Amino acid sequence: MTKKTIPFTHQARYCTYGNLSNETEYIWIIFHGYGQLAEYFIKKFEKLDKDKNYVIAPQGLSTAYLEQFTGRVGANWMTKHDRELDIENNLNYLETLVKSELNEVSNSDKNSNKKIIVLGFSQGAATASRWIAHTNFEISNFLVWGGMIAHDIDAVFYKKMKNKITLFYGDQDEFISEEGLKTSLMKLEKLGISPKLVPYKGTHKIYTEVLNKFIENSLI
């Protein structure tokens, strides 16, 4: 047997919130977690001022039923099967999407003051970190929520994002153990990275009140 791949035109789903204009101050690119859909994930951000914030929510390229063969559908960024191919497809998709959406931002001086914030939740954190390492867009903040930076990121990423990483973790998060967090922080420390830490009371999900408090304290 010979395994092969072939490129073809693929239409990918994503959602946006807000109005991208001269008044926009912050552009958010948010990456959902395993088994989520962009149209529901973006609702966590719909209390942001739509005149100052523009939110882009890409959706993982693979979808499936979450239970057996019917019911709710969720998306994911990759599995262990043909993982490297999924990573390559994700990077091509994300770069095409962001360039398409932010063409005016990258090519117009009047839009150069807009800040790009990337948020990766759960599985989306690893995919987001790979895209940040890959892209030439300048990222002002990388918010890692209930997830980890991809283990295969090279030193260029850490040099680029040295003082721009914030880790959010819940005291009851069933997927992020205290030991796992310590290991991640030790790895970052060895690379000269001291991320901001935002602990909160709660489980493995985004709490809008925690997000809004961070925005008020750190972005405004």
Briefly characterize the structure.
It contains seven helices and nine strands, in the order ββαβββααβαβαβαβα.
Topology:
Blueprint: E1 14-17, E2 26-31, H1 38-41, E3 53-58, E4 62-65, E5 73-76, H2 83-101, H3 103-107, E6 115-121, H4 123-134, E7 141-145, H5 155-160, E8 165-170, H6 178-190, E9 196-200, H7 208-218
Parallel strand pairs: 2-3, 2-6, 6-7, 7-8, 8-9
Antiparallel strand pairs: 1-3, 4-5
Strand content: 15-25%
Instruction: Look at the helices and sheets and give the structural class.
Output: alpha/beta
CATH topology: Rossmann fold
What is the total number of structural domains? 1
Radius of gyration: 17 Å
- What is the CATH C level class, in words? Alpha Beta
Indicate the CATH architecture.
Answer: 3-Layer(aba) Sandwich
Sequence of strands across the biggest β-sheet = 1-3-2-6-7-8-9
Identify the notable features of this structure and list them briefly:
220 residues, alpha/beta, Rossmann fold, 9 strands, 32% helix, globular
Task: Outline the structure in words.
The chain contains seven helices and nine strands, in the order ββαβββααβαβαβαβα. The protein is α/β, with parallel strands linked by helices and 220 residues long. The chain has one domain (14-218): Rossmann fold, CATH 3.40.50.1820. It has a seven-stranded mixed sheet with strand order 1-3-2-6-7-8-9. Strands 4-5 form a two-stranded antiparallel ribbon. α2 (83-101) crosses α4 (123-134). The longest helix has 19 residues, at 83-101. The model has no long low-confidence stretch (mean pLDDT 91).
